[in-house]
Write a structure and sequence with these properties.
single chain, about 240 residues, alpha/beta, Rossmann fold, about 25% strand, elongated
């Protein structure tokens, strides 16, 4: 029987991760701990803007769902998955990062040297702050607009809970907010190996008893799958 891997990522990304896991021979169990709720976007936020910053594919989807045209904008994207979503949405120019929000800020400051005009960071309602503050401190006209929010699930799915009871199993963590939701659910994770996309994403679970913790070398899906492979190998699977 293939190793059970619990996917806690929000939809629709959870389906993408599950498909990847199935192709790799794992038994993917969907248990999204966050639900994305799009809240719309005021067109006035785009006034004078040619550069839009995305720190997740959810931001891209919320932007297009709000009926905003993507042509004529440069999309600054935190990583490959977000960049792929921006290209699919029709952004004329996409700059692809390979890290987290702090890495993206450094990329913008380096690559945008000599260019003027405001940048608009579109993300969830809890993401306002650090990235925009970093850009402002460097003298750029950076702004923020929330286009969606996330709602936490009260618990893992019945299938996921059953897998944890049987053990061993692996639980994937894609974000700190997802980890916070898992922690609030107070599910015993002592039989689970946590595989997180980054150290900040795993931080809310640092006081939780678990069978092991693996952190991806880079905060992207490719590195997460590599870390998963190492975790699975430690179980002899």
């Amino acid at each position: 029987m293939s190793l059970a891997v619990i996917v806690t990522r929000a939809q629709p990304g959870a389906d993408d991760t599950a498909a990847c896991l199935t192709a790799l021979g794992y038994h993917a169990l969907l248990s999204p701990m966050l639900r994305v709720v799009e809240t719309g976007l005021d067109p006035a936020a785009l006034e004078g803007v040619k550069d839009i910053v995305f720190t997740s594919a959810n931001g891209v989807r919320a932007f297009t769902s709000a009926g905003m045209p993507s042509s004529g904008f440069t999309g600054w994207c935190v990583g490959p998955s977000t960049a792929a979503a921006a290209r699919e949405a029709g952004f004329g120019q996409v700059v692809e990062g390979d890290g987290d929000a702090a890495d993206l800020a450094r990329l913008i400051l380096t690559a945008r040297s000599g260019r003027s005009g405001p940048l608009l960071h579109i993300a969830n309602d809890a993401a306002a702050g650090h990235l925009v503050a970093t850009l402002k401190e460097a003298g750029l006209d950076a702004r923020f607009a929330a286009a969606y929010q996330t709602e936490a699930a009260p618990s893992l799915s019945d299938q996921a809970l059953a897998a944890l009871m049987q053990g061993p199993s692996i639980l994937l963590v894609h974000s700190a907010k997802g980890a916070e939701a898992i922690a609030r659910a107070r599910t015993p994770l002592n039989t689970a190996i946590i595989v997180a996309i980054s150290a900040p994403a795993a931080a809310p679970l640092e006081k939780t008893a678990m069978a092991g913790l693996w952190i991806a070398a880079r905060p992207n899906e490719t590195a997460l799958m590599a870390a998963l492979g190492e975790a699975a190998a430690s179980l002899g699977t």
